[in-house]
């Protein structure tokens, strides 16, 4: 099935600049509390404040313990609603940014540069590259951008399924790894040697490679199941034709 969306827009130097900005913006490279953090998606997306749920007396006075906006001990539909509420700003912000970047030609530049790479690797077009980069930092942003690409016809259903498998295999891999998993590489044994002998770079590389492996295993699965469905449909049509005759 060919992509229904065709574009005659010329890819200019401005498009490549917009693409470069998008890669830096969604990659998390500039995630910081310094001034340059304003060019990072997660930093600009921010976070909700804290809600006090317990107060304890300390030697220095009264100190309030805090938790996230969702509070503590929630359950059922109400807790699910509050969780969904926390996703809305991220999704809206990501969609707004991708529309701005698309206006300046970032998707056209991504399509031209990344299609020769992503087509053989996962069978998806290059304009999904921004969503791929965003998904390494935020599952919400990656999912929102992928949904928009699907709705606008840039991705077929099959391409969307494969791309979704890539994203949610070790979702938000970079952020989650460096915020929690990387601490394991600092652990030491009793004699002072490192408890983990491999490097952080190797761990990230293995994780990233197997995201592609997972996507391609799903491609194989789709080839098998869609092939069976096609044969089943053909058999049904043949039987219906014979019965009608």
Automatic annotation (TrEMBL):
<keyword id="KW-0812">Transmembrane</keyword>
<dbReference type="InterPro" id="IPR011642">
    <property type="entry name" value="Gate_dom"/>
</dbReference>
<protein>
    <submittedName>
        <fullName>Membrane protein</fullName>
    </submittedName>
</protein>
<feature type="transmembrane region" description="Helical">
    <location>
        <begin position="165"/>
        <end position="188"/>
    </location>
</feature>
<feature type="transmembrane region" description="Helical">
    <location>
        <begin position="200"/>
        <end position="222"/>
    </location>
</feature>
<keyword id="KW-1133">Transmembrane helix</keyword>
<dbReference type="Pfam" id="PF07670">
    <property type="entry name" value="Gate"/>
</dbReference>
<feature type="domain" description="Nucleoside transporter/FeoB GTPase Gate">
    <location>
        <begin position="85"/>
        <end position="180"/>
    </location>
</feature>
<feature type="transmembrane region" description="Helical">
    <location>
        <begin position="12"/>
        <end position="30"/>
    </location>
</feature>
<keyword id="KW-0472">Membrane</keyword>
<feature type="transmembrane region" description="Helical">
    <location>
        <begin position="81"/>
        <end position="101"/>
    </location>
</feature>
